[in-house]
Amino acid sequence: MSNELAAARIQRRGLMLVLSSPSGAGKTTLSRLLLQHDRDIELSVSVTTRAKRPAERDGVDYSFIDHDTFRAMVERDELLEYAQVFDHSYGTPRGPVERTLSAGRDMLFDIDWQGTQQLVERARQDLVSIFILPPSTEELERRLVSRAQDPPEVVARRMAKAADEMSHWAEYDYVIVNEQVDQSLELVKAILTAERLKRYRQVGLSDFVKSLRAGR
Ligand SMILES: Nc1nc2c(ncn2[C@@H]2O[C@H](COP(=O)(O)OP(=O)(O)O)[C@@H](O)[C@H]2O)c(=O)[nH]1
Ligand SMILES: Nc1ncnc2c1ncn2[C@@H]1O[C@H](COP(=O)(O)OP(=O)(O)O)[C@@H](O)[C@H]1O
Q1: Cα–Cα distance for residue pair 47/32, rounded to 1 Å
Q2: Residue owning the nearest CA to atom 24 of ligand 1
Q3: 189-198 long-range CB contacts below 8 Å, 24 or more apart?
Q4: Strands, E, within the chain: which ranges?
Q5: pTM for this structure?
Q6: Is 143 in the pocket of ligand 2 (CB under 6 A)?
């Protein structure tokens, strides 16, 4: 049997890849790079009530909505998970995730530990979670300041919450200390490659092996 035929008979179930970190550790940077390097994964664009940063695009980085719209989405059960972070509401629209996964493609989530816990409860088998740590506290602060997208008081509040957020590291499948972006990206890609090969994500594998054993 040729490889083409084998590939047609074994299809993959889409997985959900979560990247979480304290604010400023680099998860947005890594997400963007991964999306550029890998055509089989799509970003889940969250809705949020927080103000848009200058470099962000509505509908691309987030969908920026008001509190009433957010509440209405919750009431209509349109969010797969949602949480309050830094006094703002953030949530994952359900529709795009369901469409992407059922098409056998993967979905990337830049969400916090609260959202990750909710996804674990709903879809443990389909979930792969990575926690990104900064190399040091000083470097975390340097990155938050150098991003130059938030006012100083917002940076200070994000630093103050970093220790809390980092306490959730052990709830994740993988942990990466983000020193060099390129190296961290290679690690994320390696995790994704291995996770895609998990036996239970390969639909049709058992029939394929049966046919091999039967000499067909
Ligand atoms: N639970 C949940 N968390 C989210 C969602 N979108 C973003 N977040 C998290 O909210 C936190 C704040 O995000 P943001 O305001 O973009 O700040 P940043 O982390 O400094 O870039 C981060 O931990 C994000 O991962 C979401 O849809 N659900
Ligand atoms: N490995 C790294 N080394 C140096 N700077 C980084 C690294 N990763 C990210 N940065 C920078 O740090 C800042 C915060 O990164 P970002 O991806 O926005 O973090 P997060 O999404 O986790 O809040 C950005 O200015 C980004 O360019």
Answers
A1: 18
A2: 111
A3: 189/34, 189/37, 189/38, 191/128, 191/130, 192/17, 192/34, 192/38, 192/41, 192/106, 192/128, 195/15, 195/17, 195/128, 196/12, 196/15, 196/106
A4: 11-12, 16-20, 41-43, 46-48, 62-64, 79-85, 88-93, 106-110, 127-133, 174-177, 202-203
A5: 0.94
A6: yes
Residue 124 and residue 15 in contact, taking contact as beta carbons nearer than 8 Å: no
First to last CA, the chain: 8
pLDDT in tens, 118-152: 999 998 999 999 999 999 999 999 998 888 777 88
- ipTM more than 0.95? yes
Any binding-site annotation on 134? no
- Say whether 23 counts as a known binding-site residue: yes
Listed residue (91, 104, 101) closest to 64, CA to CA: 91
Strands (E) in 21-126, as ranges, are 41-43, 46-48, 62-64, 79-85, 88-93, 106-110
Q: Which domains does the chain have, with CATH numbers?
A: 3-44+105-213 (3.40.50.300)
